[in-house]
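Explain the record.
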Amino acid sequence: MRLADTITVTIAGEAIELRPSLACAIRLERRPGSFQQLTRDIMDGNLTAAVEVIQDHTDLDFLPNRILEQLDTLKAPLLRYVMACAGVDPDDAPKAAPKGKPAKSVPFRDHLQDLYKKATGWLGWSPEVALDATPAEIVLAYEGRLDMLKAIYGGGKDQPTDDRPLEEKFRSVFNTYGTVKEAA
């Protein structure tokens, strides 16, 4: 999954960075038809859809008029943005679904709520930080937390049993980060 992938569009000579934050994804998901309809609308050159995507990222006056002038050139970056809001990386698509077992379909609303739960619950981020993060950032941070917990407590079917005391497991994990325990 891409991290910090910048999506920039130029409108009326102004470069606008489109950051696919969780808050923007939730707002766009609430649109009638969710991401599926939004994707269709962008591909059809729908001005309203383009404005809805861009409006949170700029304060340009007369935004619809300015977007209309270059609607066709905005399709590709807007589609990349919607995919990033949905947590989809087109480069990961071939390896996303495991062979032999179809993936369970989850509504985008549930997927986005799950990301929020992971960010605020598992990762301990404030609601503001969670909503400002991109889905890719949340997923990677969550995977990192799981890796840390597995390194400390063990886990997984194929994991060899680690009989070391818990204190030694913590020490080995935190030593990789250069953490030093100070004597009191």
In short: The first helix runs from residue 22 to 29. Strands lie at 7-11, 14-18.
